[in-house]
Automatic annotation (TrEMBL):
NCBIfam families: ccmA. It comes from Sulfobacillus acidophilus (strain ATCC 700253 / DSM 10332 / NAL). The keyword Zinc does not apply. Keywords: ATP-binding, Cytochrome c-type biogenesis, Hydrolase, Nucleotide-binding, Transport. Belongs to the ABC transporter superfamily. Residues 12-239 form the ABC transporter domain. This is Heme exporter protein CcmA. SUPFAM superfamilies: P-loop containing nucleoside triphosphate hydrolases. GO terms for molecular function: ATP binding; ATP hydrolysis activity; transmembrane transporter activity.
């Protein structure tokens, strides 16, 4: 399996990455690379190490083995967040009692974002939340909260986004907003790596789908070389032997 997407110099490159948490080896051997504009979806059963991988790639946790290259540089100890990388985890990291505008101003000032008002206007526009800038975040629906969390991630104008189950709990309009944003982001050269439990959702948006199992990729395929039905069959066999029903009918 050649786990390489994009022909130009890679934005992110993992070589035999390993990570131990406590006494457990959660990532055993993960290698792949993504170039500008490429998109990869990672599927896998609960506990496979997907979130751990994202945290290592984001620089939240340092790996215990292997090499991590980001933007052409080998990280000396594997750690360090980078403003060029936007990481959307399971928490929004927004303050519920503050309005969306106050939240974005807070993070913008913290990170020293230039032309902050303009930037805020642009990011809320990208996620379609301009109309709720002055509402406290605690009043947001799940979909609005996810979109607001994405707006926060976009403040630093990342070149690579790492999205951990970004579609979870989103209604159809919010999914469409997220789909549209991912397409636009990619068309401008942005690189996307997302974790999902819904192969059908990821399929239309990415160049390749990988299955992580016990800390290593056990399957990887470009979407162009594989009909959706085949992906669903593989997913059911390797990840969800109990059965899987596509969550959305894409026709
Ligand atoms: N901070 C931690 N300390 C110790 N073990 C951890 C820690 N975080 C995760 N683990 C363990 O590492 C393994 C992988 O967890 P991880 O969250 O990366 O899996 P995942 O593939 O994202 O799962 P899910 O689909 O349930 O989100 C699990 O066995 C989990 O219990």
């Amino acid at each position: 399996m050649d786990k390489r997407l994009g022909s130009r110099s890679p934005v992110i490159r993992a070589v035999h990455l390993a990570k131990t948490l406590g006494t457990a080896t959660v990532l055993q051997d993960v290698s792949f690379e993504l170039g500008p504009g490429a998109a990869l979806a990672i599927l896998g059963p609960n506990g496979a190490g997907k979130t751990t991988l994202l945290k290592v790639l984001a620089g939240v946790w340092a790996p215990n083995g292997g090499e991590l290259w980001r933007f052409g540089q080998l990280l000396p100890d594997g750690g360090h967040p980078d403003p060029r990388i936007g990481y959307l985890g399971h928490q929004s990291l927004l303050y519920p009692s503050l309005t969306l505008l106050e939240n974005l101003r807070f993070y913008g000032r913290l990170w020293g974002i230039p032309r902050l008002s303009e930037t805020i206007e642009s990011v809320v526009d990208q996620v379609g939340l301009g109309w709720s800038l002055d509402d406290p975040v605690r009043t947001f629906s799940r979909g609005m909260l996810q979109r607001a969390a994405i707006a926060r991630v976009l403040l630093t104008a990342p070149e690579l986004v790492l999205l951990d189950e970004p579609y979870t709990g989103l209604d159809l309009p919010s999914r469409h907003v997220l789909d549209g944003w991912i397409r636009t982001f990619r068309s401008q050269g942005g690189t996307v790596l997302m974790i999902t439990h819904h192969p059908d959702e990821a399929y239309r948006l990415v160049d390749a789908v990988a299955i992580l199992h016990t800390g290593r990729f056990i399957w990887w395929s470009p979407t162009q070389e594989m009909p959706l039905e085949q992906l669903l069959t593989v997913y059911q066999r390797l990840v969800a032997p109990g059965g899987y029903s596509p969550s959305v009918n894409f026709g």
